[in-house]
Structures are given as C-alpha cells and as structure tokens.
Design brief:
The chain is α+β, with helices and mostly antiparallel strands. The chain has one domain. The protein is about 50% helix and about 15% strand. Strands 1-2-3-4-5 form a 5-stranded antiparallel sheet, sandwiched between helices.
C-alpha cells in the first residue's frame, strides 16, 4: 500500500493496483457523525492502524445500521461508500499497457475476488477515517504505521500519473497457434 503527500492511497492486488483519493469536504460534512463514531470505535477497541484497516468498513456499516443511517438515498452506503468507490480505480495490465478501470466496473468484471474487495474496502474506509479525522501533523505517522503493517511506500502521484510511472506491462493472449513438435529426438 502506498500513501502519497496528497493522501492518495495505492494498494497492491492480484491483478495490479487499486488507487483511491480522499473524500471531498462536502462528503465528510454530510457523513461526519458516522465517520467520527467509526473512528472512535476503531481506536477505543484498540484496533488503530494495526487491525483497523482490516475491519473499518465493517465497523462503519455496523455503527451506521445501529444508528439507522446506512440505507436510503441519503444513507452512508449511498453517500460515503459510493463516493469512496467513485474515487477508486483498479490499474491493471492491458493490451496496450496499464489500464485504469473504475472500481465498480472492476468488481462487475470480476477483476477482484470477494476477499480482495473486502480487504480493499476496509483499507479504504480506514484511510478515509484517518485522513478525515487526524490532524495533518499526525497523519504522516499514522499512515506510516499503516503502511508498515499492511505493506507499502509513499508516492506523490494521482492515479493517471501512477499508472504512467509503472513499467510497461501488457497482457498477452494465446493466439491459438500450437507449438510445432521438434523432429529432433530429445
């Protein structure tokens, strides 16, 4: 996982990378109470950056369901979670180099397993909690701890820049041709 100075996060997944940007201020303001309660619950439970990234999305849903604010057009699932997913891209090798696929489409296309989707969403919610609630002066240390336990490094690139900085990688498809058997005995 990589977190840049602009607070974009990059996670490694089997098919490539997942890149996500922080939520905008208006999304935080609309969801400040569930975000604050989840942030507090993660830390009061002793989870911090060690275990918090594994359960943050589940904790957010539990708290929001308990408070009756998860569902509906203005619910946390439709506002905060949709915004997090909208700001997230899967970067994977394609026929012409790295391709950037919106997270929701990558899920629909089966690029990520159910386990990867769960891991990514939990880590992205933890990232959202940390970047929304910690002072900027504390954030570097928190994110360093998170990357230490969950793997990663920092970068200062957005998702397009990040994809362009990767070594050229393309997928190759089987052309259907069969290997010609050698007439030389082995």
């Amino acid at each position: 996982m990589k977190i840049d100075k602009k607070l974009n996060v990059v996670l490694s997944v089997d098919c490539g990378y997942v890149h996500s940007s922080p939520i905008p201020t208006h999304t935080f303001e609309k969801n400040f109470l569930p975000i604050s309660k989840t942030f507090s619950a993660v830390y009061q439970s002793g989870l911090s950056f060690v275990a918090g990234p594994r359960v943050a999305s589940m904790m957010l849903k539990k708290i929001s369901v308990d408070d009756g604010v998860w569902d509906g057009p203005d619910g946390v699932n439709n506002t905060l979670m949709t915004e997090i997913r909208k700001l997230t891209y899967v970067i994977k090798p394609g026929k012409n180099g790295w391709e950037e696929v919106p997270f929701w489409l990558a899920i629909d296309q089966g690029l990520l397993s159910d386990e990867e989707i769960s891991e990514v969403e939990n880590e992205l919610v933890f990232f959202t909690l940390a970047s929304s609630m910690h002072k900027k002066s504390e954030l570097t240390e928190i994110l360093h701890g998170m990357t230490k336990f969950w793997g990663g490094q920092t970068t200062s690139q957005g998702y397009t820049e990040f994809a362009r900085s990767l070594p050229i990688s393309i997928t190759t498809e089987n052309t259907g041709e069969k290997e010609v058997a050698s007439s030389i005995p082995s």
